[in-house]
């Protein structure tokens, strides 16, 4: 409602039904207040992950090798993606994030030491070393996990609305994917990296949609805005 919607004839002080209208406004105000409180509670839960991302960002910024990814990460933050979702993407290249996600989800930590090739190898999905293949699969699992626990309903729905159609997150995911393979001495073309990243994001969207009913039930029980 805006000030242009206000009609003096509906003022609580006018006419014989003033008390009834006053009660109506009181009820509307109570509903609005309850909605604001739910939204604030929702956003306060998301702040936990804001602090977590900030902590890891400080650690990553101190390591120059991550510099090429920071601009794309900040672009995704500006676009409104959920912090926990972005943490999931970064977990492929920064194992402490994966450890944090898995601890929160009650899963065992991943043990992975990047096997750097002495010579650059070309990416071949049919002949990937099993430890690298397993690491990528664990990463996908981390992303599915992190968008399902202690989430913000508002931000999660915003992320779901953006995930397949926004170029920024596809570019960021592809860059993280390429960075990982570069670290282990495998060269992957930009087109292949984008193709795999889009597939992974598509699978993540399906997983999120599949779990949305149970998430909405959880949010409702916790008094979050749905």
Topology, element by element:
Layout: H1 18-61, H2 67-79, H3 83-90, H4 95-104, E1 121-122, H5 130-146, H6 153-162, H7 167-183, E2 186-187, H8 190-221
Parallel strand pairs: 1-2
Tags for this model:
226 residues; mainly alpha; two-stranded parallel ribbon; 67% helix; disordered N terminus
Report on this structure.
This protein is mainly alpha-helical and 226 residues long. It has one domain (21-221). The chain is built from 8 helices and 2 strands, in the order ααααβαααβα. Strands 1-2 form a two-stranded parallel ribbon. α1 packs parallel to α3 (83-90) and α2 packs antiparallel against α7 (167-183). The two termini are 21 Å apart. The model is unreliable at 1-16 and 28-43 (pLDDT under 50).
């Amino acid at each position: 409602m805006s000030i242009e919607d206000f009609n003096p004839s509906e003022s609580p002080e006018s006419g014989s039904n003033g008390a009834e209208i006053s009660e109506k406004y009181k009820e509307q105000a109570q509903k609005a207040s309850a909605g604001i409180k739910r939204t604030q509670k929702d956003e306060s839960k998301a702040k936990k992950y804001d602090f977590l991302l900030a902590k890891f960002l400080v650690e990553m910024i101190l390591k120059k090798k991550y510099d090429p990814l920071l601009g794309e990460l900040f672009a995704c933050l500006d676009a409104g993606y959920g912090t926990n979702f972005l943490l999931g993407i970064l977990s492929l290249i920064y194992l402490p994030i994966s450890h944090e996600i898995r601890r929160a989800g009650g899963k065992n930590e991943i043990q992975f030491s990047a096997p750097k090739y002495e010579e650059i190898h070309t990416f071949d999905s049919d002949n990937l070393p099993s430890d690298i293949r397993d690491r990528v699969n664990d990463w996908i699992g981390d992303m599915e996990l992190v968008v399902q626990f202690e989430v913000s309903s508002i931000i999660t729905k915003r992320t779901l609305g953006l995930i397949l159609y926004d170029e920024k997150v596809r570019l960021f995911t592809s860059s993280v994917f390429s960075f990982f393979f570069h670290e282990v001495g495998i060269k992957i073309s930009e087109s292949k990296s984008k193709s795999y990243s889009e597939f992974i994001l598509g699978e993540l969207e399906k997983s999120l949609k599949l779990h949305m009913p149970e998430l909405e039930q959880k949010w409702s029980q916790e008094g979050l805005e749905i």
